[in-house]
What does this fold into?
Amino acid sequence: MEPALQLRELASSIRRGDRVALAKGITLVENDSASAPKLLEQMGTPGRAFVVGITGPPGTGKSSLVDRLIEAYRKKGLRVGVIAVDPSSPLTGGALLGDRIRMAGHAGDKGVFIRSMASRGWSGGLSRATSQAIRLMDAAGFDLILLETVGIGQSDIEVVGVSHAVLVVLMPGLGDDIQVSKAGLMEVGDVYVVNKADIEGADLMVVNLLSLFRGTPRSPPVLKASALSGEGIDKLQDAVERIRSPFLAGSPELRLKSIRGMIIETARGAAMKKLAVVSESRAEKLANQVMGGKTTIERAAARLKV
Amino acid sequence: MEPALQLRELASSIRRGDRVALAKGITLVENDSASAPKLLEQMGTPGRAFVVGITGPPGTGKSSLVDRLIEAYRKKGLRVGVIAVDPSSPLTGGALLGDRIRMAGHAGDKGVFIRSMASRGWSGGLSRATSQAIRLMDAAGFDLILLETVGIGQSDIEVVGVSHAVLVVLMPGLGDDIQVSKAGLMEVGDVYVVNKADIEGADLMVVNLLSLFRGTPRSPPVLKASALSGEGIDKLQDAVERIRSPFLAGSPELRLKSIRGMIIETARGAAMKKLAVVSESRAEKLANQVMGGKTTIERAAARLKV
It folds into this structure.
């Protein structure tokens, strides 16, 4: 069969919601395959699915909270896709194992699709791939896409770019509110969740977070939840729904923001890839000049054009 | 005082090995201050300090191993600088707290300087900053610089670029050897350490790693160690010394490799920053065109030139 024809068939299978085709498509974008851009071109304009980014420090229970949200939205009849960025996966195999464990809870439910994505070698690769996987899931007809990241800074910012709503997940005992504000996380969340609400200090943390927002132009909801007991999940869903309802009503604002983020991540990924390819031999020559004292690293870097 | 004069004084204080000046300089590069490139220009050609990158999955005990290496190299009379990339720090304040706890073990020892660096908002920022912090520590007269990363893929590759030697730290029970080989970590290490050697499965893991290298052109040492008991640290140090001795003897090969890595990271950081600045308003227009079905995300990204 012609490769172009195969790709067209893959594209139409994805758009019909075929799970195997979707998995294959995501692998293509994850591997940065040469056919990935052609596949993506056939996905149409994104903006059907509502994309919720979920971020926060490691250990705050983001995965469990995502599982609760899946349950809550399945009860509403929505089809839910999940992209989980797993930092431990490249070495531990956590991604694949994690998928299997997590899928087990939704076994046989065709309305749920979970995919873990591991960080790749070159900078910009992960955000490009997650943004492209979102487009494939969107085209496959999912209503809600949950994008769960590791909360280590870089990926937080990228999540913000492509998501329609961002949940920042925290937990009691995570250091004082000043640390949270320093991290720049105060600017990115649409909803703040103090998870593990059964732990001492949850109420105090909510109060501290609220007081941080006082005197700023923003006043996002700050909620308590417990992914373990299910406490507060209904209120969390309500908070998400308040952001989703203008989106459902056709408001272009959030769609535009997400598409803008996708364009930026795609361009950024392409730029990084180009730099990775171009630079090796030229950098070698420039390194010799730096070592010989003929130029500095700053000047050499400026001459290493992308 | 003239800013230029202040900067010259800061530069000469760093080159004299002044710790307060060094800390200040690292903060300048960490914050990507406008004066950072000027400061770096005054640091001279790097290549005095031997830079050891330490990478591997979270939880393998890299920090404890680094502490053991500090001890071992202090006994030899070397001045040791440490840069620890801390993924949890943006939110938990782990970086600062971690510094204090770790420094406590070396309190009053002017021959040790430990600095944690947190991941920043834009891609490429961290690797640029760590590479620049290495140059400042190098200029400040440290003999050995230990660069400890989080082992989540991207930073691994960047560590390889600027380090003279790379230690990959693993532990028993981390999934099978195939996962390790898939992660691309088989290509990057100069020395492989199975840490927590007291845990069951350490010997098997060493055997598996050795068999992975059989039939490849590479045969790096694979060692067992226990940062807890100190077992195997002497052999680990020997392995590092075998790489360091040609470097000490003046061999340019590793110095060139590291300088090349620094040029690439500096250029990459500059490219990402430019993209972050340029794109917002232009991306907005392109997003409107994508939403109107006039173009695709791929074509829009191609037009969003860096």
Residues 88-97 of chain B have pLDDT under 50 and may be disordered.
